Amino acid sequence: MPLLLIVIAFSVRHALRPVRELARDLETRGAEDLSPMEGPKLPDDLRPMLAALNRLFQRIGVALDNERRLTADAAHELRTPLAALRAQWEAGQVAPTDAARQHALKQVGVGIERLSHLVVQLLALAGAESLQATSMKQDVAWPNVVGNALSDCLPMIETRGSEVEVHWPEDKPDAQTAAPLPLLGDETLLTTLLRNLIDNALRYSPHGTHVNVFFEPDRIVVEDEGGGVSPEQMARLGDRFHRVHHGEGGSGLGLSIVRRIAALHGLEVRFGKRANPDGSSGAGLRVELRRRAGFAAA
User: Fold this and answer.
1) Smallest Cα–Cα separation from 179: which of 135, 206, 143, 210?
2) In the 3-class helix/strand/coil scheme, how is the chain assigned residue by residue?
3) What is the rounded distance in angstroms from the CA atom of residue 241 to the CA atom of residue 76?
4) Which of 23, 44, 123, 265 gives 185 a disulfide partner, CB atoms 3.0 to 4.6 angstroms apart?
5) CA angle (188 as vertex; 140, 165 as ends), nearest 5
């Protein structure tokens, strides 16, 4: 029996030696080293654990890359409005007349509004990127999402004298009984998505125009009456901090947030030109949300 126990202890120790080597490798790794781990001597039963670790390292690497890119982009983008605020403030301090001082203070207010909008968008993007698609488990009530999004956009709608028309499937004479795009998801995030689409449509359309939001059984479409974008610009829509018209007060993050939230819900974003009533292509922008191929419906 003692001899048998010695043999068993030696065998177990020998069998677990690859695990101890793996543990030492993990212990000595630097915080930035997310390269795949090699374990050629691991028993077959432990290879799934090594594969899971490598997949975890890959996910952490992607998350860290996203954070670094977001931090770098945010630092670059925040520098411009802060410098403009300081310049306008200094101009107001040395303004020779009350009119010049009031103009400088007005510009300071515009800069603060833009900076506030940028910070809100950055927080929304960071929050969306930290979530996983597996957390989207609630049936989406689109009327609630629309109501909250329109409430958020109401100040801009009133300021620009524009209208936002929402079209539901039952509004069509030949409508079927299907609900508008059945989906499992997070209504707060989808409110942010729809608010950004409506905000973007209002911001880049003339005052007093219409923005149409179409809910259909298989898609959501947002169309504006703006001047449209060139094919080159359309290819870059959704890139972080990319603005088509720099004269507007946007941050260049709205469509990036839309794409990220859409991806979390298994949707893809397509950009195109607005269709005229006669079927021809108009000048406005058309944004279409459709379920990705292979993604299960609610």
Assistant:
1) 143
2) CHHHHHHHHHHHHHHCHHHHHHHHHHHHCCCCCCCCCCCCCCCHHHHHHHHHHHHHHHHHHHHHHHHHHHHHHHHHHHHHHHHHHHHHHHHHHCCCCHHHHHHHHHHHHHHHHHHHHHHHHHHHHHHHHCCCHHHCCEECCHHHHHHHHHHHHHHHHHHHCCEEEEECHHHCCCCCCCCCCCCEECHHHHHHHHHHHHHHHHHCCCCCCEEEEEEECCEEEEECCCCCCCHHHHHCCCCCCCCCCCCCCCCCCHHHHHHHHHHHCCEEEEEEEEECCCCCEEEEEEEEEEECCCCCCC
3) 10
4) 265
5) 70
- How wide is the angle at C-alpha 259 spanned by C-alphas 257 and 264, nearest 5°? 95
Predicted structure pTM score: 0.63
Q: Which two three-digit tokens encode residue 62?
A: 């992607």
CA distances from 14 to 41, 51, 224, 249 (A): 11, 22, 69, 66
Which amino acid, residue 81?
A: P
State the sign of the Cα–Cα–Cα–Cα dihedral 269, 270, 271, 273: negative
In this structure, is the dihedral angle defined by the CA atoms of residues 270, 289, 267 and 124, taken in order, positive or negative? Answer: positive
Can you state the angle between helices 142-160 and 187-203, rounded to 10 degrees? 30
pLDDT band of residue 220 (cuts 50, 70, 90) is: very high
**Tens-place pLDDT, residues 221-262:** 999 887 767 777 767 676 665 666 545 555 567 787 788 888
Beta-carbon contacts of 67 under 8 Å, excluding residues fewer than 6 positions away, are: 129
